[in-house]
Amino acid sequence: MWTVTDSPVGELRITERDGAITRIEFSPFAPAGDAGRGERRDDHPVLAEAVRQLAAYFARELTVFDLPLAPVGSDFQQRVWQQLRSIGYGETASYGQVALRLGLTVAASRAVGLANGRNPIPIVVPCHRVIGANGTLTGYAGGLERKQLLLGLETEGLF
Fold first, then answer.
1. Together in a domain, 150 and 84
2. Residue 127 designated active-site
3. Residue 141 domain boundaries
4. 150 and 87, same domain (yes or no)
5. Residues 119 and 48 in one domain
6. Active-site residue, selected from the candidate residues 127, 131, 149, 153
Protein backbone atom coordinates (compact mmCIF):
# COMPACT_ATOMS: atom_id res chain seq x y z
CA MET A 1 0.00 0.00 0.00
CA TRP A 2 1.04 3.56 -0.49
CA THR A 3 0.10 7.19 0.06
CA VAL A 4 1.28 10.60 -1.11
CA THR A 5 1.98 13.62 1.08
CA ASP A 6 3.00 17.18 0.33
CA SER A 7 6.28 18.46 1.72
CA PRO A 8 8.59 21.46 1.30
CA VAL A 9 10.73 19.30 -1.02
CA GLY A 10 7.77 18.31 -3.20
CA GLU A 11 5.32 15.45 -3.04
CA LEU A 12 6.53 12.26 -1.41
CA ARG A 13 5.12 8.81 -2.13
CA ILE A 14 5.42 6.49 0.86
CA THR A 15 5.09 2.74 0.42
CA GLU A 16 4.55 0.11 3.10
CA ARG A 17 4.56 -3.66 3.10
CA ASP A 18 3.71 -5.98 5.98
CA GLY A 19 3.47 -3.07 8.42
CA ALA A 20 6.81 -1.40 7.61
CA ILE A 21 7.89 1.47 5.38
CA THR A 22 9.77 0.12 2.36
CA ARG A 23 10.15 3.20 0.20
CA ILE A 24 9.84 6.98 0.06
CA GLU A 25 10.00 8.51 -3.40
CA PHE A 26 10.39 12.09 -4.53
CA SER A 27 8.15 13.39 -7.30
CA PRO A 28 7.97 12.97 -10.21
CA PHE A 29 7.00 9.38 -9.44
CA ALA A 30 7.33 6.26 -11.52
CA PRO A 31 3.92 4.82 -12.46
CA ALA A 32 2.14 3.46 -9.35
CA GLY A 33 1.84 -0.04 -10.83
CA ASP A 34 5.62 -0.45 -10.91
CA ALA A 35 7.34 -2.40 -8.13
CA GLY A 36 4.10 -3.95 -6.76
CA ARG A 37 3.04 -1.03 -4.56
CA GLY A 38 -0.57 -2.19 -4.30
CA GLU A 39 -3.43 0.22 -3.72
CA ARG A 40 -3.41 3.74 -2.34
CA ARG A 41 -4.50 3.78 1.32
CA ASP A 42 -4.15 7.16 2.96
CA ASP A 43 -5.74 5.83 6.16
CA HIS A 44 -3.37 2.87 6.67
CA PRO A 45 -1.95 3.26 10.22
CA VAL A 46 1.74 2.93 9.28
CA LEU A 47 1.39 5.28 6.31
CA ALA A 48 -0.61 7.80 8.33
CA GLU A 49 2.06 7.74 11.05
CA ALA A 50 4.81 8.23 8.45
CA VAL A 51 2.93 11.25 7.07
CA ARG A 52 2.52 12.63 10.61
CA GLN A 53 6.21 12.18 11.45
CA LEU A 54 7.37 13.68 8.16
CA ALA A 55 5.13 16.73 8.76
CA ALA A 56 6.59 17.08 12.27
CA TYR A 57 10.13 16.79 10.85
CA PHE A 58 9.48 19.54 8.32
CA ALA A 59 7.95 21.68 11.09
CA ARG A 60 11.19 21.16 13.08
CA GLU A 61 9.24 19.39 15.83
CA LEU A 62 10.80 15.96 15.27
CA THR A 63 14.50 15.14 14.99
CA VAL A 64 14.42 11.32 15.23
CA PHE A 65 11.99 9.15 13.29
CA ASP A 66 10.35 6.19 14.99
CA LEU A 67 8.87 4.13 12.19
CA PRO A 68 9.06 0.44 11.32
CA LEU A 69 11.39 0.24 8.32
CA ALA A 70 12.06 -2.57 5.86
CA PRO A 71 14.32 -1.26 3.10
CA VAL A 72 15.21 -3.86 0.50
CA GLY A 73 18.92 -4.14 -0.31
CA SER A 74 22.08 -6.21 -0.03
CA ASP A 75 23.73 -6.95 3.33
CA PHE A 76 26.30 -4.22 2.65
CA GLN A 77 23.61 -1.70 1.72
CA GLN A 78 21.70 -2.57 4.90
CA ARG A 79 24.84 -1.94 6.96
CA VAL A 80 25.38 1.44 5.29
CA TRP A 81 21.73 2.46 5.74
CA GLN A 82 21.85 1.47 9.41
CA GLN A 83 24.98 3.58 9.84
CA LEU A 84 23.24 6.55 8.19
CA ARG A 85 20.57 6.41 10.89
CA SER A 86 23.29 7.10 13.48
CA ILE A 87 24.16 10.48 11.89
CA GLY A 88 22.30 12.90 14.11
CA TYR A 89 19.89 15.65 13.12
CA GLY A 90 21.85 18.67 11.94
CA GLU A 91 25.09 16.68 11.64
CA THR A 92 26.94 15.49 8.57
CA ALA A 93 29.51 12.81 7.83
CA SER A 94 31.67 12.16 4.80
CA TYR A 95 31.51 8.97 2.80
CA GLY A 96 34.95 8.11 4.20
CA GLN A 97 33.77 8.64 7.77
CA VAL A 98 30.82 6.32 7.17
CA ALA A 99 33.22 3.72 5.75
CA LEU A 100 35.44 3.99 8.83
CA ARG A 101 32.43 3.64 11.14
CA LEU A 102 31.63 0.41 9.29
CA GLY A 103 35.13 -0.89 10.06
CA LEU A 104 36.34 -0.34 6.50
CA THR A 105 39.02 1.93 5.10
CA VAL A 106 38.45 5.29 3.45
CA ALA A 107 39.05 3.44 0.17
CA ALA A 108 35.52 2.04 0.59
CA SER A 109 34.07 5.56 0.20
CA ARG A 110 32.89 4.84 -3.34
CA ALA A 111 31.05 1.68 -2.27
CA VAL A 112 29.46 3.63 0.60
CA GLY A 113 28.43 6.32 -1.89
CA LEU A 114 26.81 3.77 -4.18
CA ALA A 115 24.88 2.23 -1.28
CA ASN A 116 23.92 5.69 -0.06
CA GLY A 117 22.56 6.53 -3.51
CA ARG A 118 20.37 3.42 -3.49
CA ASN A 119 18.76 4.23 -0.13
CA PRO A 120 15.05 3.58 -0.73
CA ILE A 121 13.84 5.53 2.32
CA PRO A 122 15.37 9.03 2.05
CA ILE A 123 14.80 11.63 4.77
CA VAL A 124 13.89 8.94 7.36
CA VAL A 125 17.17 7.14 6.59
CA PRO A 126 19.11 10.40 6.30
CA CYS A 127 21.33 9.90 3.26
CA HIS A 128 21.18 13.70 2.78
CA ARG A 129 23.54 14.03 5.75
CA VAL A 130 26.44 12.43 3.86
CA ILE A 131 28.73 14.91 2.15
CA GLY A 132 32.05 14.96 0.32
CA ALA A 133 35.34 14.74 2.20
CA ASN A 134 35.98 18.44 1.56
CA GLY A 135 32.57 19.43 2.95
CA THR A 136 30.86 19.91 -0.40
CA LEU A 137 27.44 18.60 -1.26
CA THR A 138 27.77 15.64 -3.56
CA GLY A 139 25.19 13.53 -5.37
CA TYR A 140 21.71 12.98 -4.02
CA ALA A 141 19.04 10.82 -5.62
CA GLY A 142 16.47 13.56 -4.97
CA GLY A 143 18.73 16.23 -6.48
CA LEU A 144 21.27 18.52 -4.85
CA GLU A 145 18.69 21.27 -4.36
CA ARG A 146 16.61 18.97 -2.14
CA LYS A 147 19.72 17.85 -0.26
CA GLN A 148 20.62 21.48 0.40
CA LEU A 149 17.07 22.24 1.56
CA LEU A 150 17.03 19.27 3.96
CA LEU A 151 20.41 20.18 5.44
CA GLY A 152 19.31 23.81 5.68
CA LEU A 153 16.16 22.80 7.53
CA GLU A 154 18.22 20.90 10.08
CA THR A 155 20.99 23.43 10.57
CA GLU A 156 19.40 26.81 9.90
CA GLY A 157 15.69 26.20 10.34
CA LEU A 158 14.89 27.00 6.73
CA PHE A 159 11.34 26.44 5.39
1. yes
2. yes
3. 75-156
4. yes
5. no
6. 127
